[in-house]
Amino acid sequence: MKRIILIGYMGAGKTTVGKVLSKKLGMPFYDLDWYIETRMRKKVPEIFAEKGEEGFRKIEYNMLHEVAEFENVVISCGGGTPCFFDNIDYMNTDSDVVYLKATPEVLYSHLQMCKGQRPLLAGKSKEELLSFITEQLQHREQFYMKARHIVDISLMDSAEMVDMAAEKIISIVQ
What is the DSSP letter of 124? Predict the structure, then answer.
């Protein structure tokens, strides 16, 4: 039985790498945010708007416990998931938790590619965005660093780079 959970800051490539990883391993892939949206029949921003962050985090906690019971899966979590309740300790219990670690500059460049899809980032200048990422990462890193495995990722701007990250994860979890 194998369960791989990818954690890291928004834009680290958790979903992108997770999909490639699941294909290579022949295991189903679950993105926790997508799973929440399917189960709740609402988009994450709608849940945030209706229930606030605290309400969303409770739902996220319950859905994490649900999806983390599946066997032989690859799961990617939202950037904040490990930072609430006992989530990181729970994930580490029966799973290979992999932190996709990147510098604020690398995360910034990844997020520039998909800025329109991230409400938290809308309307921020380059300096504001870099400062926001740096500040949040400093707070969250204490939780991310509890992962069993840490994979330093550099700029994943090509399919080859994503493939290399997936191969690296396979080599450390087997």
Answer: -
> DSSP 3-state assignment of 168?
helix
Going by C-alpha positions, the residue among 36, 66, 64, 65 that lies closest to residue 48 is 36
Label the pairing between strands 73-76 and 149-152. Answer: unpaired
CA 53 to each of CA 28, 46, 60, 141, 174: distance values in angstroms, whole numbers, following the listed order: 28, 11, 10, 20, 36
Task: Work out the burial of residue 75: count CB atoms within 10 Å of its CB; fewer than 13 is exposed, 13-18 middle, 19 or more buried.
Answer: buried
Q: Which amino acid is it at 48? A: F
Burial class for 63, CB neighbours closer than 10 Å (0-12, 13-18, 19+):
buried
Q: Do the beta carbons of residue 15 and residue 27 sit within 8 Å?
A: no
At 145-171, the pLDDT tens digits run: 999 999 999 878 889 999 999 999 999
Q: What is the 3-state secondary structure (H, E, C) of 33-61?
A: HHHHHHHHCCCHHHHHHHHHHHHHHHHHH
CA torsion 16-35-53-122 (nearest 10°) is: 40
* 81-119 residue pLDDT tens: 999 999 999 999 999 999 999 999 999 988 887 655 676
Q: Are 85 and 61 in contact (CB under 8 A)?
A: yes
